[in-house]
Specification:
Keywords: Membrane, Transmembrane, Transmembrane helix. The protein has 170 residues and is of the alpha+beta class. It folds into two domains: 97 residues, Alpha-Beta Plaits (2-Layer Sandwich); 57 residues, no CATH class. Helix content is 48%, strand content 15%. The model has no long low-confidence stretch (mean pLDDT 87).
Length: 170
């Protein structure tokens, strides 16, 4: 299991040194994500993907739940009104529920891809000032060691938060 650490860094140069130190600490580059204003050149730093920048995961989860609930209601209503052939009620309601979940998932994902990640709202003012946000997914047993190492070697870095669990699809 991994935890996500958030570091606020003042510029690209300090982000590159922290990045290199994380690589030396055996944190794979695929677990390091950097977010900055659009006009900031990240050079060779690993840029945050759409999954980190947008509210895609939260939107997909919410859409699937709401769609499934709507499917159950619609399936139940269809059974009560007699639109479902007798003997196939359970299968039909189940199918309509799955269909509702898939439609809800699709629709909410199309909307959520354009919404900024709600977990990153706390960092928006610093990002607007030109700072960089480094998100690092580390094994649980290394959280304290990595935080301490970054604090010790990079006093300019602000260790901001530890997310209890990282999203399911980072």
């Amino acid at each position: 299991m991994r935890r996500r650490l958030y570091f606020i860094l003042p510029d690209v140069k300090s982000a590159q040194t922290v990045h290199n130190e994380l690589l030396l600490s055996k944190i794979e580059e695929r677990h390091i994500h950097v977010l900055a204003r659009e006009d900031v050149d990240l050079a060779d730093l690993p840029e945050a993907s759409l999954l980190q920048k947008s509210d895609l995961v939260h939107g997909a989860q919410l859409g699937a739940i709401i769609g499934a609930f709507a499917g159950v209601l619609l399936g139940t209503l269809a059974v009560m009104l007699g639109y479902i052939v007798s003997g196939l009620e359970v299968w039909s309601v189940g199918s309509i529920t799955v269909g509702g979940a898939l439609i809800g998932l699709f629709a909410s994902t199309m909307v959520a891809v354009n919404i900024p990640n709600t977990r990153l709202k706390a960092f928006s003012s610093q990002l607007e000032q030109g700072h960089l946000l480094m998100m690092v997914d580390v094994p649980v047993e290394q959280v304290d060691a990595i935080s301490a190492r970054v604090k010790e070697h990079h006093p300019e870095a602000q260790v901001r938060d530890v997310e209890p669990t990282i999203p399911a699809f980072p």
